[in-house]
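Researcher: Good morning. I'm working through a list of sequences from a screen, and I'd like to move beyond sequence-only analysis. For each chain I'm collecting a predicted structure so we can compare shapes side by side. This is the next one on the list. No need for commentary yet; just the structure.
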Amino acid sequence: MAGRFDPLTRTAVRGGRTSVPAPTAAGAPTAAGAPTAAGAPAAATAGARTREWDPGRAVDLGLTLGPLRRGPGDPTFRTTPDGSVWKTSRTPQGPATLRVALGPRTGTAHAEAWGPGAEWMLDGLPALLGEGDDPAAFVPRHRLVHASHRRRPGLRLTRTGLVLESLIPIVLEQKVTTDEAYRAWRRLVCQYGEPAPGPRGGLPQGLYVMPEARTWALIPSWDWHKAGVDAKRSAAIVRSARVAKRLEEAAAMELPQAAARLEAVPGIGPWTSAETLQRSNGAADAVTTGDLHLPGIIGYALAGNRDADDAEMLELLAPYAGQRHRAARLVLLAGHVPPRRAPKMRKTDIGKL
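Model: Good morning. Structure tokens for this chain:
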């Protein structure tokens, strides 16, 4: 949780941190928010599929699943006061809603899922919570990175196994402020997606499933414009949606082959492919290049150089080969950023033109 000595700053959010309330001490919460005496949640309704999984090590839901949230108003991601994370996905079997919470005493993950893709979501629960991640392979080489790593033992790299789900909101973030991208994502998902499957009256308000690939490809130009998305970004999304099946195959590929598959689509470059594969594949070495701010943050934190470029950033991260994405996240989570010396990037909304 955010606190006096670990504030939830914009840089920490960029590092993939989301505030998730702690579950009640009486037991893991139910979907309706009432704790159970036995420490395990009861199914919210008949028809909810359930699964329990013991990670065998500390897992921080806010740090592990935080990179999947696209802003505080993301219609596909919610946290609730009972300590639950709610997430929707369009799986190969269809739309699904997942609710996951950790037992306060055991750390066991208790999950419930609804919809045609419920079984698929529950089968992927271990990967989603970082089962395939190997934190032991990471060796800190800088004092700041070591302190950030020690402070966050529950950080795991998630793997969703779904490419388009991460690719589209990341394309929306190309060369605009995050607020503009989040606004576009909210508008398009709520307009063209569908209400999340689940118990009537038991779901967080405003939870939606993103549109299917064909729907993305058929969004008319005027609705892209109203959402504040320019022709270049909308064209990249439409092209990606048309080859969605081929892109989804990248979730099972090694990092170089997966990146090449994504970057074969015009409008998808190294920045977009890295940000996507960090989430869909849990790629620990997918370092983001071509970013406006990241090289300066890494350079300032590790070498005192706020003007570092991609080449210097990669040189600083070279000792973390195989784990460069994790190292970059730990630097961002540490919050050691250079002081501002210029105005923020101006927010625009072409939908008002």
